Design the sequence.
């Protein structure tokens, strides 16, 4: 069951709609502004409804604040070195909004767009037409993202097609706090992440080629451990991100669905299992958070993200492209799935 209501208005006077999925004791609310997962309420071990995602109560906060809370990111999630795309023998200079690099789609990105919407049964589909030349990307890109929430499981299905060769790497940027969005630090929450290597990155967190094995490092989550246990370790990669903000290579082939992570709050007992058919996930521990949220002020490490995606900067690193390329040609279809399953 999906209910809709007007959430507010954009600064230019357009209505923003909130769609709420009801699933027994659980619910999820998604906005057509940026496709934001605005709330996700599940019962804890005592049956208490608990909102486990960070978000805002008003449209202005989504429009004006950074951080991409709960939002869709595109055309290209994460970073492209120097903002340069080389496709079909032509170089495209993208907007550089992360020092010398391009990040999360550029000046505006998909996260600030008001998407078209349609409801079918218990699924919500958001659609967007990104014109040729937007953010200097080539090709008119047609994007659809379908949200389904049932049985305590949020499923997000992404699809895109283009009329000219372009680059695509979509993700969702939801911040989770399994103790409740208003409770502060996530550092006591346990994470298992089935990955044995991370993409090597520079001081600006740009993956530059090669992989670093996680064994014996603070990046080893192959046995469950608190997010905060090693976050302050003396490690060059951790210093670059001021915590975790790194791309983990998963063990699947691109297009092969795999359950890759389990997170749990010792306070509430809420457990989240994560699956995808993408070959990588960005773990981000909200190191730069500083926003007034729904139930509290969100300071650093008030939420964590598991952003499924192709390896960032794969346009410039053939080794990363071999795991899954962001090049999308006319007649081809970009499609993948991310699943977040909740229980106690």
Sequence:
């Amino acid at each position: 069951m999906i209910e809709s209501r007007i959430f507010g208005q954009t600064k230019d006077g357009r209505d923003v709609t909130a769609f709420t999925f009801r699933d027994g004791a659980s619910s999820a609310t998604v906005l057509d502004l940026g496709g934001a997962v605005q709330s996700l309420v599940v019962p804890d071990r005592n049956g208490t409804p608990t909102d486990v995602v960070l978000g805002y109560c008003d449209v202005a906060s989504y429009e004006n604040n950074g951080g991409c809370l709960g939002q869709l990111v595109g055309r290209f999630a994460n970073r492209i070195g120097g903002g340069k795309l080389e496709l079909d023998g032509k170089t495209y200079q993208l907007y550089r909004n992360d020092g010398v690099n391009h990040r999360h789609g550029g000046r505006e990105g998909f996260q600030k767009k008001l998407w078209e919407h349609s409801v079918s049964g218990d699924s919500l589909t958001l659609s967007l037409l990104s014109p040729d030349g937007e953010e200097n990307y080539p090709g008119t890109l047609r994007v659809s993202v379908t949200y389904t929430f049932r049985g305590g499981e949020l499923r997000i299905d992404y699809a895109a097609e283009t009329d000219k060769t372009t680059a695509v790497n979509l993700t969702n940027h939801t911040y989770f706090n399994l103790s409740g969005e208003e409770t502060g630090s996530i550092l006591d929450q346990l994470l298992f992440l089935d990955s044995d290597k991370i993409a090597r990155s520079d001081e600006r967190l740009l993956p530059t080629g090669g992989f670093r094995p996680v064994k014996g490092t603070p990046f080893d989550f192959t046995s469950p451990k608190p997010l905060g246990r090693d976050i302050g370790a003396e490690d060059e990669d951790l210093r670059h991100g001021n915590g975790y903000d790194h791309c983990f290579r998963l063990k699947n082939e691109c297009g092969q669905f795999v359950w890759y992570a389990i997170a749990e709050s010792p306070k509430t007992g809420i457990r989240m299992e994560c699956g995808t058919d993408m070959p990588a996930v960005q773990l981000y521990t909200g190191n730069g958070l500083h926003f007034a949220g729904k139930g509290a002020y969100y300071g650093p490490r008030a939420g964590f993200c598991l952003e499924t995606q192709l390896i960032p900067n794969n346009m410039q690193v053939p080794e990363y492209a071999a795991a899954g390329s962001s090049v999308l040609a006319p007649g081809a279809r970009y499609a993948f799935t991310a699943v977040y399953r909740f229980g106690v």
In short: The radius of gyration is 19 Å. The longest helix spans residues 59-64. The chain is about 5% helix and 40% strand.
